[in-house]
Structure formats: structure tokens, C-alpha cells
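Batch job 17 of 40 flagged for manual review because the log was empty.
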Amino acid sequence: MTKVIGVRFRTAGKVYYFDPKDIEMKKGEHVIVETARGVEYGTVVMPTTEMEDSEVTQPLKPVIRKATEDDSEKEKRNREKEREAFKICKEKIVKHGLEMKLIDAEYTFDNNKVLFYFTADGRVDFRELVKDLASVFRTRIELRQIGVRDETKILGGIGFCGRPLCCHTYLSDFAPVSIKMAKEQNLSLNPTKISGICGRLMCCLKNEEETYEELNRKLPNTGDTVTTDDGYKGEVASVNVLRQLVKVVIEEGDEKEIKEYKVSQLKFKSRHRRDKNKDKAEEEELKALEQLEKSDGKSKLDDD
């Protein structure tokens, strides 16, 4: 077993493990630690905990010390300097005529490096820009290109649900999201209706996926033939996944009637997963939409 503490460096950022040594740390306290980027100021999100050796990547870097009031003041000054650095970098981008959108500026705690995050449609030759910025800030400069998901995570906003974005408030990693998740939940496959403000599939599709998969296993497919508990045979017209209700088209003589039953009132063959060969046109649509997701790549914010 290995003793670790979990430290986060930005809101909803990735949690990194450090060796607490003999320092007793509580959740919410601030610490000074050494990372691949240099000395950093972080927030403890997981107090001293023992974890299996296999769950920890060795060697762990030790905590340097608890943050002092002076450290907190320095961190606050760094945040103010970042706003000025952002403004200067934006002016330099315009000066050099580069096709890039500046998203954020970030100082390391020890001021040994300034990182600028940007988005662009393709590769950008920013070598002259880096030289120009280095002459202004007199420190190491790093420009990091990020995707649209990362841009939204940094900037934040309000989702279609009316709440602050999950990625900006608590979601530390982007879980893979598939268009098939939307289909499993009987949502419209119109990209504008199932995409977040970043333009990619909404992360919350992943939240209820397991629940819908479990509930769907208990239901027949639309178009299946079922036998009702009152002796009728009919074809499934639609299903209500959450309420576990099924609408069945029943023929009585020359007339057809739609009746609603609880799934427990029906007999049918076990539900099979959708056959990929059943509707090739639909599968091609799914693949095309999923390709849009893959093109954005993984998050590039937490490569420390």
C-alpha cells in the first residue's frame, strides 16, 4: 500500500497523486508541489489515503510544503498577471496575422513558464510569435493547441439544461461518447439536438447509458410480434423505456387498435442487440456522426 494525496491544479482538472511524506493534509487545503512543468500551487481534493501499489505510478513526487499566506498572495498575483499576458498575446497574434483563437493564459507558480492555450483549424507556424512573446515576458513560453471540448471546459457556460457545464464544474476527464448512446436512449439523431455548446456530442449522454441499456434489455424492439396477457397478438408500435410501457398494434377483424401494456404483461423473444445489417443507411449515418467525435481527439489540457 502507498500513501498518497490527490491534488488538482484547476477547476474540474485532472487529479494528480503526490507523496504527502509526514505532512497531514485535509481536503480543501492548498499545497506547493513539483510537477513536470515546475513548482505549482494546487488544491487538495483527496486527503491522505492508502492506495494499492498497482494504482499508483511510481515514483511519486513529494509534497514540498503546505501553502502559506504568502503563497496564496503570489497565486492571486499570478492570476492578475495572466489577464495582462492574455491581452498582450492577443495583440501579438493580430500583429503576426495568425489564424488562431487565443483561449487562455496560465503562469506556473514559480513564473518559470507562461502557457498560452489556443484553437485553430489546422497547424499554425507560431515560431515568430513565440520569439516576440519571449522578448516581452523574459521567461519560457509554451503555446498549446487544444480542441473545442477543452475550449469549452476552460471558458465554461450554461448548458441546454440550464445548469453550468459539467466539464467546467466537476467533470475531470472526457469520457468517450457515442452516437449509439443517443439511439439507445431514443433521442433524436439530429446533431444539433444532441450536441453541447462545444459542437460535440453532449457528455451527459454517458451518464444514463448503463441505465438505458439495462432497461432496454427488458423491452421488445419496435416491430417485434408480442403476445399480451389478454390473449392478443400484435406488433410493437413504440416503447417507453423509463416507464417500461409498450404500445401494441392489435388487429380485431378489419380494425386496428393501439393498446398500451406494461412489459410484464407481454410475452416475446429475448431482445437482441440491433443488427448492423438491418438498416445500412442508418449505420452509415451513425458512422459519419461518430467520425466527427473522433476528429476532436483527446483532451490536451492535462499533459503535465
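Reviewer: the log was empty due to a logging misconfiguration, but the result itself is present. The two ends are 25 Å apart (CA to CA). Unflagging and moving on to job 18.
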